[in-house]
Amino acid sequence: MSKNFKMVAKTLFGFEEMLAKEIRNLGGSNVVEGVRNVAFEGDTGFMYKANLCLRTAIKIIKPIHSFSVRSENDLYKKIYAMDWAEYLSIDTTFAIDSTVNSDNFTHSLYVSQKVKDAIVDKFRDMDGSRPSVDVKFPDVRINIHIHDEHCNVSLDSSGRSLHQRGYRTATNIAPINEVLAAGLLLLSGWDGQCDFIDPMCGSGTMLTEAAMIACNIPANINRKEFAFEKWDDFDQELFDKIVEVCLNRVREFHHKIVGYDKAPSAVRKALDNVENANLSEFISVERKNFFDTEKFTEGKLHMVFNPPYGERLSLEMEDFYASIGDTLKQKYPGTEAWFITSNMEALKYVGLRPSRKIKVFNSQLESRLVKYVMYEGSKKAKYMNKDEDKD
Questions:
Q1: CB count, 10 Å around CB of 170?
Q2: Which pLDDT tens digit goes with each residue over 16-67?
Q3: DSSP code string of 120-161
Q4: What does R_g of the chain's alpha carbons equal in angstroms?
Q5: Dihedrals φ, ψ of 71, to 5°?
Q6: In terms of C-beta density within 10 A (0-12 exposed, 13-18 middle, 19 or more buried), how is residue 136 classed?
Q7: What is the mean pLDDT of the chain?
Q8: Dihedral through CA 228, CA 234, CA 240, CA 243, nearest 10?
């Protein structure tokens, strides 16, 4: 059995607690929340499983060394001193990703260049030859993080960001990130126990992530490759076993997942992406304007959506958000409605009081995930019924 080692999962601001819960549920140990990251421990199989299953992780990195650093020369010497033959050979291609937050180091590209020089010089001094850099498709991706005078060196086990699930080939102008979509759904309490709707579904990301959560399908099952598959110690048999075990935990789903969009192009893209994810049996997408629709089920309905925004919409903001509120009030009783917006001013026009507001970020935009509970009948009647239930 392989030994446990430390890993760090990177995530979006506000998703740390949710990601920590995901890691614990998956079987990780010594889970510690940070800012936009969660540290944990597990073995090699767990690293494979974390990449495959975690919905709110952007990357899983494996720290291999840390040290204090005060200058460029100091950085070069300490990187040079590491035993790089343990991770690379002269036939291995590599790339460096650097993040710096330090008075001594101000340019991440320069840090990456200095680290690359140290690694290349180490091999050249030992063997007379050196590994090559491949920025786009490296065999090994090395992560450098400098905060003040502390430097962490890690191996990137994921490669491309884990939001790139592999099912989305067609997108709209401003598609919602898959990790963000999954996180919003989990924050909203979506668990697959009722019908679901995204009434402004765009290219269908929210629908697809909702179906994968409902069915407990691994988030990255459709992804073509993870960086760890190129590592020298990659265990194909173990990885295949992890995939098999995770797929055996897929559960049945007995409700509907429905998407609407008024743009024919969006509907086509959504249908393509749903098919790519092999989820067509669970999801239906129709060309409809949300403001002309009404609730399609008598039971509880869970709604999560990302209203469009842009220059044109800003001119119609008051009407647009007022129409959201009117449609929810008049056509969607018995619905728990959530949506994300970066336009705090626009929320005034919804005409409903949100029961929750959660701070999140959509790319670089500070946003709010807001919740509106639309009761069957009046709110007053709802509370009266609750009181009757207690008697």
A1: 16
A2: 999 999 999 999 999 999 999 999 999 999 999 999 999 999 999 999 999 9
A3: HHHHHHHHS--PEE-SSS-SEEEEEEEETTEEEEEEESS-S-
A4: 24
A5: -150, 170
A6: exposed
A7: 92
A8: -30
